[in-house]
Every structure is written in structure tokens, then in C-alpha cells.
Amino acid sequence: MEKSIVCIWLAVSVFLWTGCGESWQYKNQGQSRENAGVQEEHSISSEAQQDDSAELPSGKEAGETVPLEESAEEPAEEETDDRAVREAAGLSEEKIPLLLAAQEGRYNFDRLNEDEQLVYVEIYQILCGRGVDVKISCMDTDRIEKAFQCVLNDHPEIFYVDGYTFTKYTLGEELKKITFTGTYHMDVGQVEENRKKIDEYVRTCLENVPAEADEYEKVKYVYEYIIDHTEYNAEAADNQNICSVFLYGQSVCQGYAKAMQYLLNELDVFSTLVIGSVSQGEGHAWNLVRIDGEYYYVDATWGDASYRMEESEEVTEPEAAGEENLPTINYDYLCVTTEQLCKTHTIDNVTELPLCTSMDANYYVREGAYFTALDEGKLKSLFEQEYARGSTYVTLKCSEESVYREILIKEQEIFRYLNSPDGVVAYADNEEQMSLSFWL
């Protein structure tokens, strides 16, 4: 059978994840030449903006032009080749339903429509198997980007991927197919070595979780553990994934949030990654958790004093307190409502998020440090409790500004409970969150 000459134009697009939140860099370069009736050679130049150690798709090197021969295959033969590649990647027609079922319960997956869910499991399977140039069912690049983000937001264990490339195949003006390749910045040996180190960290971290701990206590334990064992460092290695926290003890917001998500999932507590921004539009990441059926936001990065000292001007060091007594943990962002969070954060997530309204598992409510009115007996009990524990400071939160003003300014009853022989009282106040910290 005589084969026809098919001229195919390919465009390679590269997406890389950068910054604390999500920021995408897009490269799309292609070249084509017309030569009627003659099989010709096309070329693509694809620039990968990543570390030298990153593994590039097979046959492509950063900054080089790769010659590609035109395909002269019959459509049926091409489809057979695509099917074989998909099956090798674990995407056979028989396995697709099983893959879909396995993702049910993942927060972002559950909020996609059926077509988007199919793209999600295709991308997930390709990334898990380190697939290269695998045909996917979708030819909408916006939908591909959305599905990719959903996969990474649901799966913190995929720490070896920092972006992806796709290749468009067109016949004339008609788009025929798109193939997908993850950008893998660790080789297989590095991934396995890092997994062992992660497993060791997780064992050490979780071995002291009380067997009788409820969901709130598990969230609080992980929040405190990550903060106590991690330093905020914008220059930390692998700071967009869990390796930065689990291997190096230094990270930025996305590392904190993914580590939090990973550990809570190990404790069978629901958690997912949330993307948005803070302050002057700086990208940021934190968590959504579910406790006793209610949703709350948790931001371990903003709970870490090392971040607040470097990035935040809201909490300053009281001169009388001294740096050694500065609270290491800020609980203003442990299990908060949407209203409380949005005083400082802007949500810009890839999928819709619930309206968090419950205060039942809020840190201050659970710890008896939430005041809806001036209650002298409750204040006295709170301070006595912290002195008995040997704490260096006590923190409380008010339900509204009038209570905040009454406790701190109007009556100043609170100062009676501080043991201060020299008459010097040190405290920090966060008027935006209506919280107060007193050094003991």
C-alpha cells in the first residue's frame, strides 16, 4: 500500500513551577517550512529553565534544536503506537476505571468534572511512572494545566516533579493530538534515597503522637512539630516540595504546607494544599483541614517565628522580652475560619474551597484562651495554668474588638496576673487578629 506523506508541525511547551506559591513560566517555540509533496525535516527548540541536575525528556536537551522527521505512518499505525505507549505507562482502557476509582476522596479530584478527572488520572499515572511523550485524551492546554496543578495539590508525595512539557501535533490547521511529559528534577536513585529519609522523618515525628489523640490534637501536634523542626529560608533546597522540610529542615510556604499535608494524611486526617497570596500579592501556600466534619484553614508558615522575623512586620520583638523569649509559635493560624484567614490572605485556588465558619476546633477555643467577654476568673486560670507549665509566654484571642480593647486598654485587669517584681511588662499584640501574647 502506498503511503502518503504527512507533514506534521509540533510545538513544545514547557511549564515550570517557581516561587512560594504557584507561578508558571511558559515557553512555546516552533519552526516549520512548507515544501509541497516533499518529506521535510522540522525542528524544535525548547529551553528548559531548571537546574542542570534536572532530567529532561528523552531526546531533548535544554537550549538545543532537535531535528524531527515527518511522520509517514498511516493513521492506524500511529494510533497503535500511541496505544502501546499509553499501555506501557499504565493507561490501558482496562486500568483507567481503576485509576479513577483510586482517586476518589482526593479533594481536588472530586471537584473536577468527568473529562477533567480523566486528564487528572492520566497525568498522575504518567508522573508516577516518569512517563515521556505519552498521548493524553485532552487537547485543551488550560485544562491540562488545571489537572496538573490538581494532581500536585492532592499528592505531596510526588516531590520529584517541578513542571511538565507537552507537544502538539497538528495536520495543517487541525490539532491531532497532545503528548505529555513530566519534568523530573531527580533521577530514580535520588527519589528512592529521599523516600527512605522521608520515611525515617515521618516515623520519628509520629511516634510520639498520643494513641488517644483526636483529630484536633493531631493537627496541633503536626503544626507544632513542623514549626519546631523547620526554619524559614527562601534559599532552601527543594523548597517547593516536602524534601526541604523532611531532609533539610529549611523551607518556604509550599514546603511547609506540603509537609503538613503529608503528615496529616499519614495520621488519617484530611488535609489539602491551598494556593493564594498575602501582603503585596506575594504567592503563598497553606492548608485546608477537616476536623470532626468541619473545615478549617491552617498556615504553619505564618505560625513560625522564623518566618515572622524575616518577612512579617506585624509582630515585633518587645525590647523587654528579649529575643530568647520570643514566642516560637504563633497560633493565630491554627484552625481558623475563612473570615479570619482573609484578613491577611487572598485565596486563589485551582478548585473551589468551602466556606469555613466553625470555631469548634480553633486553637484558642480548644485551649480555653478565647474570650467573648472580659472574664477575670478565666484570665486568672489561664495565666496560672501557663505558669504551672513553665511557659515563657501566654497567648489569648478575643472574639471582637470591644473585648480586645477592654482586656488590654480599658481595665488592664490582665496585668494583675503577671508576676513582674520589677514592674516591667512585655507583651505583643496583633490588632488585626485581636490576639495578645504576654511574656511570663
Please describe the structure with a list of short key phrases separated by commas or semicolons:
440 residues; alpha+beta; C8orf32 fold; 3 domains; 5-stranded antiparallel sheet; 14 helices; 33% helix; 23% strand; disordered N terminus
Q: What proportion of the residues form beta strands (DSSP E)?
A: 15-25%
Give the CATH architecture of the largest domain.
Answer: Roll
The first-level CATH class of the largest domain is given as Alpha Beta
Q: Might you state the CATH topology name of the largest domain?
A: C8orf32 fold
How are the strands ordered across the major sheet? 2-1-6-7-5
Please tally the β strands and state the result: 18
| Uncertain regions spanning at least 5 consecutive residues | 1-19, 21-69, 312-323
Cα distance spanning the termini: 89 Å
Number of helices: 14
Radius of gyration: 26 Å
Mean pLDDT score: 80
Largest sheet: 5 strands, antiparallel
Q: Structural class from helices and strands?
A: alpha+beta
What does the overall shape look like?
A: elongated
Helical content, roughly? 25-40%
